[in-house]
TrEMBL record:
Keywords recorded for this protein, A-Z: Cell outer membrane, Membrane, Receptor, Transmembrane, Transmembrane beta strand, Transport
Annotated family: Belongs to the TonB-dependent receptor family.
Membrane-protein topology: Multi-pass membrane protein
Protein name (database record): TonB-dependent receptor
Predominant localisation class: membrane
Location of the protein in the cell: Cell outer membrane
InterPro entries noted in UniProt: Beta-barrel_TonB_sf, EF_Hand_1_Ca_BS, Plug_dom, Plug_dom_sf, TonB-dep_OMP_SusC/RagA, TonB-dep_OMP_SusC/RagA_CS, TonB-dep_rcpt-like
Lineage of producing organism: Bacteria, Pseudomonadati, Bacteroidota, Flavobacteriia, Flavobacteriales
Segments forming domain TonB-dependent receptor plug: 50-157
Length: 1004
């Protein structure tokens, strides 16, 4: 095992496990803190005492995150729950948060969990919740708990309960606000001005072409003039584009109170955040009102209204597109100086842009404007009727509406505008989705002697409608501003014979009807049986395949209640659990069972002098037999409490088998199509989760508590059906950062997300060649495989060129030498946090870690490959490349002199061929990150009482404090492709920043 991995393991053991073991040897503190095993958790459609839970459930309560200031609720739970991976895709304001539970199950469908907020389904709900308003988050992980949600539960379920008021409580006002600043944490090292011109000299002079030499001399000067670049002022474009101090202002205001029969809560949240990148930022306003009222002793109601409005500003650095959309490239590869060259870095030079495929990053940033807005509305009401002491009827009705828009402007100097007559282009998109949910349940609870019965039956409907409109508007006036363009798209002037792309619309209705039941039986408070059944009908599938059935059962044995353990001084809680269940996934593209037409000018035809858009069915054939992706899950677990609750934890072993995965299969082209979606895949996830916590010290003046979790998951593809070739049982899949680059392998027996490429073998040395003094030509010796076709654009390899391993020994480097280069799955991952309280001071430390995962650093491939363009800067390590020119600027050909010249160089000449993946770009992504440090001070109760306050706390926080990793890129957690098949790709990610803030928490 790598030394870095070992150091992370030992640090984890030192910081966490040793204090816990030491605690076990301590004498009991005067004041013991009991275990949290008696907590009530939300499971399915009802609340259950944690002692009686038979499933795999992780829970985070408000107390755990109340003192951690954050603008994103998902960040607040990162590293807190076993088996739950929470990661930011990149560091941009408002960046998407990926939450994957137990490794994810689907290959082409969504792996996002189902979110239920106060009984109503919402998509990606944590992005519109403030951490301050969350009462609890329960994550259901195994199918014995998620199957009650049937068609939508295969990827886990996140149940979120928001805070409400308390009955018989006086009105309380709480304000929590903080001011912070973000700063870039690290940059990619590139060649300095002198190193840059030396590299350009080599490119222009290497082939001895006089026109190339003249271009170089005119642009940079002759060789004897290049020393001036040692003193030329360096332009650090990354610092200029990403180096600003980005301020954040966050305000949280809540008002709560209640009377004898009612309670209310009003929460307001405002976030204004600058991005570290010029032109980027994030604004959000949220309001939530919750009202509970007892109509009578038997009837109560809850009303909840939530509204969120947020806008993300800035085009960012990347998109899910290819290399052409990479904006980071300009900041890394643009010439690193001002002066000394004929190219003025502060002016746009179209000739230089065409020659280099680069634009001044400052100018480009100001020419690309993007606004991505989202408004969310949630209205829900709950009516509860206690028919008698045994029966309770509950009805929940909810309405969720989301309106999204994207306004993007590409000014005259952008590549998109230059492809369209140097005229600005505007992209406009509007989407609205509306969801109505109604859930009705009848609950029966009865205790008879040693028997306790809890029965639930229910019915649910979910009706979703969505429409979208997208427009790509070209040929706007060159002088138009972004805001003018958004408001005046009618000002376009199409060149003669050209036609605008037709607007595209999409309508996506979705209907689900469900019936479910759940039974929970407890005997002697020791033996527990839980069983559930759900039937779902979904309009996503065609007639005959719309209904799915999802049963589940689980058992638990409270061993600590047995006579032989009742008087144990060590074991205070011990419960064994086992469960099995089925759940489904209907979150796939709609109407795959039917044929639809696509309109575009790409399919147009000439009519007169104009082009008329046409329509086509595309190359994907409909499949009436499309059905559910379904998962079966087995789980065995252990919950324990030791030393009267001073140590507590859980241990789970699980296996999830997912079948009928929807894959795109190749079909005979005689059908008129090339592909068809088929339910032909299956995967398996096996893993273990362990979480443990301890109140190490708990007395009047000092408290020290620690919680930790660690998980391991192994994913394996079991079948690919007709999607794979008959011989290899596999197929290749492109990550998409470079067109037509098949750099991922999907193969039976391997995990999803396997990198596929060549093995780097260093560089070709002089000893690999025969040298002809007469012609001064190096020819590769017999028996040594050439990487020319793959790495060198088919040009003959020379000493110093990149060398790849000939794995099959046939003497030729080709696609047959590509191999498995690892995958993005960690061997284990988790987090641990420690909280301290000393008198009026408090401190918390939040860590998360990952060990054994690989990261595909596509930036390294692009920024160390020459390919088509000169005058591009390179990674700093290119300065240590193979040299062809001596210190006097003379080309060296003689083998002895060339060997002496390169005695101290270790790098290879940047490849001249197209981009391709080799193991040089696959790095160990293991890391240990201190996510958050918070230090707070609360004024004494006596003093706050004199001020008319009930609480006054000042705090200082630093997020993303440090990361111990060997990864060379911005961030080992970067994941910019957003596709289940292509995880762990770091390409043009917005750099992650460190966030330092201070704030105040006041309660009146």
């Amino acid at each position: 095992m790598d030394k870095k991995v070992q150091s992370i393991k030992w640090l984890y053991l030192t910081v966490f496990l040793l204090p816990v073991l030491a605690m076990a040897q301590q004498k009991e503190p005067k004041k013991e803190k009991e275990t949290t095993i008696d907590e009530v958790v939300l499971v399915g459609y009802t609340k259950v005492s944690k002692k009686d839970v038979t499933n795999a459930v992780s829970s985070v309560k408000a107390d755990a995150i109340k003192d951690m200031p954050s603008t994103n609720a998902a960040e607040a739970i990162q590293g807190r729950m076993a088996g739950v991976q929470v990661s930011l895709s990149e560091g941009s304001p408002g960046a998407d948060v990926d939450i994957v539970i137990r490794g994810g199950n689907s290959i082409t469908g969504s792996n996002a969990p189902l979110y239920i907020v106060d009984g109503v389904q919402m998509d990606n709900a944590l992005s519109i919740l403030s951490p301050k308003e969350i009462e609890s988050i329960e994550v259901l992980k195994d199918a014995s708990s998620t199957s009650i949600f049937g068609a939508r539960g295969a990827n886990g379920v996140v149940l979120i309960t928001t805070k409400g008021g308390r009955k018989k409580a006086k009105t309380s006002i709480n304000y929590n606000g903080f001011l912070g600043v973000r700063k870039i944490q690290n940059t990619i090292d590139v060649l300095d001005p002198y190193q840059y011109v030396l590299y350009q000299y080599e490119l222009y002079y290497k082939n001895g072409i006089d026109t190339d030499k003249t271009i170089f001399n005119n642009r940079y000067g002759t060789y004897d003039q290049l020393s001036k670049y040692k003193d030329v002022k360096k332009r650090d474009w990354q610092d200029e584009v990403f180096g600003r101090e980005a301020f954040n202002f966050t305000h949280n205001l809540s008002i709560t109170g209640g009377s004898d029969n009612s309670s209310f809560s009003l929460s307001l949240n405002n976030v204004q955040e600058d991005g570290i990148m010029i032109g980027s930022g994030f604004k959000r306003n949220m309001a939530n009102f919750k009202y509970d009222y007892d109509l009578s002793k038997k009837v109560s109601m809850t009303l909840n209204a939530r509204y969120s409005r947020q806008t993300i500003f800035g085009a960012g650095t990347s998109s899910t597109g290819s290399q052409g959309t990479n904006r980071l490239r300009n900041a890394v590869r643009y010439q690193p100086f001002e002066g000394g060259s004929t190219v003025n870095v502060d002016d746009f030079d179209p000739l230089f842009a065409n020659e280099t495929n680069l634009v001044n990053p400052i100018l480009l940033t100001n020419n690309e404007v993007k606004e991505n807005g989202r408004n969310d509305l949630l209205l829900n009401g709950i009516l509860e009727y206690k028919i008698n002491k045994d029966f309770t009827f509950r009805s929940v009705i909810g309405y969720v509406q989301r309106d999204e828009f994207v306004n993007q402007f590409s000014g005259p100097i952008t590549s998109l505008a230059r492809q369209n007559n140097d005229q600005p282009v505007v992209f406009l998109s509007k989407t609205q989705s509306r969801r109505i949910t109604n859930t009705n349940t009848l609950n029966f609870r009865k205790t008879l002697g040693n028997h306790k019965l809890d029965l639930l039956v229910g019915q649910e409907i979910v009706k979703t409608d969505a429409e979208s409109l997208t427009m790509n508007v070209k040929w706007l006036p060159k002088s138009i501003s972004a805001q003018e363009a958004f408001a005046n798209i009618q000002s376009v002037a199409a060149p003669s014979g050209m036609v605008q792309d037709a607007p595209k619309t999409n309508v996506l209705p979705d209907r689900i009807a469900s019936f479910f039941g759940r039974a929970n039986y407890i005997f002697k408070n020791k033996y527990i049986l839980t069983a559930s059944m759900r039937a779902d009908g979904s309009s996503v599938f065609g007639p005959g395949n719309r209904w799915g059935y999802f049963p589940a059962a689980s058992l638990a044995w409270k061993v600590a209640e047995e006579e032989f353990l009742k008087d144990s001084k060590v074991i205070s809680e011990l419960k064994l659990r086992a469960g099995y269940g089925l759940s489904g996934n209907n979150r796939i593209a709609a109407f795959l069972y039917d044929t639809f037409f696509i309109t575009s000018s790409d399919y147009g035809y000439a009519f007169g002098t104009n082009v008329t858009p046409g329509a086509t069915t595309g190359n994907i054939m409909a499949n009436p037999g499309v059905k559910w992706e379904s998962s079966s899950s087995k789980n065995i677990g252990l919950d324990f409490g030791l030393f009267k609750g001073k140590v507590y934890g859980t241990l789970d072993f699980y296996q999830t088998d997912t079948k009928d995965l929807l894959l795109m299969a190749r079909i005979p082209q005689t059908s008129g199509y090339e592909y068809q979606y088929q339910n032909s895949g299956s995967t398996t996830n096996k893993g273990v989760e362990f979480s443990v916590g301890s109140t190490i010290i708990n007395n009047k003046n000092f408290t020290w508590k620690i919680d930790a979790n660690i998980s391991s998951n192994k994913n394996t593809i079991k079948s690919l059906g007709n999607s794979a070739s008959a011989t290899a049982n596999s197929y290749l899949y492109p990550s998409g950062w470079q067109n037509s680059l098949n750099d991922f392998l999907v193969q039976v027996g391997k995990p999803v997300g396997t990198y596929w490429g060549y093995v780097t073998a260093g560089r070709y040395e002089i000893s690999d060649f025969n040298y002809d003094p007469a012609t001064q030509v190096y020819t590769l010796k017999a028996g040594i495989a050439s990487s020319a076709a793959v790495a060198n654009g088919a040009k003959a390899v020379q000493p110093g060129d990149l060398k790849l391993q000939d794995l099959n020994g046939d003497g030729v480097i080709d696609t047959k030498d590509m191999t498995d280069l690892g995958n993005a799955q960690p061997k284990f991952y988790g987090g641990f946090n420690q909280t301290f309280r000393y008198k009026n001071w408090d401190m918390s430390l939040m860590f998360n870690f990952s060990v054994g995962n690989k990261v595909y650093n596509a930036n390294k491939i692009e920024y160390s490959t020459q390919y088509l363009y000169k005058d591009n800067n390179m990674l700093a390590e290119v300065a240590n490349r193979w040299r062809w020119f001596d210190d006097a600027g003379n080309k060296v050909n003689d083998p002895t002199a060339l060997a002496a010249l390169n005695a101290n160089t270790t790098g290879w000449t940047p490849p001249a061929g197209a981009y391709f993946l080799h193991s040089y770009a696959i790095e160990d992504g293991s890391f240990l990150r201190l996510n958050n440090v918070t230090i707070g001070y609360s004024l004494s109760k006596e003093f706050t009482k004199q001020l008319g306050l009930s609480n006054f706390r000042l705090y200082f926080t630093m997020n993303n404090v440090f990361t111990l990793t060997g990864y060379s890129g911005y961030d080992p957690e970067a994941n910019t492709r957003r596709n289940p098949l292509t995880p762990g790709v770091d390409y043009a990610a917005y750099p992650r920043s460190r966030f330092i803030l201070s704030g105040v928490d006041i309660t009146f």
